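Hey, resending since the last one bounced:
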Amino acid sequence: MSLTIGIDPGVTGGIALFLDGELLAVDPLPTRARLYGSGLQLDGAELMGWLLEKRAGRPCVAILEAVSSRPGQGVRSVFNFGHMLGSIEGVLQAVGIPYQLVSASVWKKRAGLIGKKKSASRSLAGQLFPDQADRFKRVKDDGLAEAALIARYGL
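The structure tokens again:
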């Protein structure tokens, strides 16, 4: 009974959990008000609790999207995105969950999503995981859908 966790980083990102190839849970990444400035940041304590509860001592691996800057992004948003990724990596390390980084271009190529809009991720996730399809219907559910697809890549 092995667990695979997929994580789409970002304040609107998601985390998905597969047990032996079956999608069991998909949730938004927990966030809280930034300790400095405005906006949101990862709630590392809540993420740690989620991971420990779901893991329940079982072997697992996490697949984490390796984010990077994109043309046209502001310096602040790139910094915040990188901060989120580093915070997630720190939590995974703290709870002893090994993880692999995968670029969006690699997992999206395998899923047939290269060059497609984010709505295609939601649509594909709804088709692949019909029991969870309601979780992928809204525009703001992109992070949930992509977390599930990243975990599927890791299977």
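Strands lie at 3-8, 14-19, 22-28, 31-33, 40-42, 60-66, 99-103.

Sorry for the duplicate.
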